[in-house]
Amino acid sequence: MMALPITTLYVSYFALFFIYLAWRVVSLRKKHHVGIGTSDHKDLEVAARCHGNAVEYVPVTLLLLLVSELNHFPVWILHAAGATLVVSRILHVIGMTSTQGGTSFGRFYGILGSWLVLIALALINLSLFLGVHYS
Predict the structure, then answer these.
(1) What is the CATH classification number for the domain harbouring 84?
(2) Per the domain annotation, does 134 fall within a domain?
């Protein structure tokens, strides 16, 4: 049996998601003949920020998920956190892309969901450190 099946699932998914986001940036760099920066191409700037924002929030959230799993936090809560992060990151990309960086339902709820999962996992791990036991 796999030692860390929950973290394995979500880390693997996000590895592929990061490649997808990076591919979008590379494709637009090629299309616009831009090596560094965005050269005022809004679509490239948005794609780069979608990738950058994911890289800023997802790794630490996955690290907190890993620590929660290592500490035997209830499986259903870990899957709820992981699934919420997946949906939130997809919403964020859809919202950012559809409005070219403007405000949208997807962008707002995507980042809100990401923050809530990050905060919840941080609090879970702090509570475990302080000796709170969950079943």
Answers:
(1) 1.20.120.550
(2) no
Yes or no: say if 9 and 82 are a contact pair by the CB < 8 Å rule. yes
Residue 64 maps to a domain: yes
CB 34 within 8 A of CB 41: yes
Q: What is the pTM of this model?
A: 0.94
135 has a pLDDT exceeding 70: no
- Tell me, yes or no, whether 33 lies in a domain: yes
Taking alpha carbons only, the member of 100, 108, 113, 122 closest to residue 41 is: 100
In the chain, the number of structural domains is 1
Q: pLDDT at residue 133 above 90? A: no
| Residue 135 belongs to a domain | no
Q: How many helices (H) and strands (E) does the chain have?
A: 4, 0
- Say what the alpha-carbon torsion angle 47, 48, 50, 56 is, to the nearest 10 degrees: 170
Say if residue 58's pLDDT is above 90.
yes
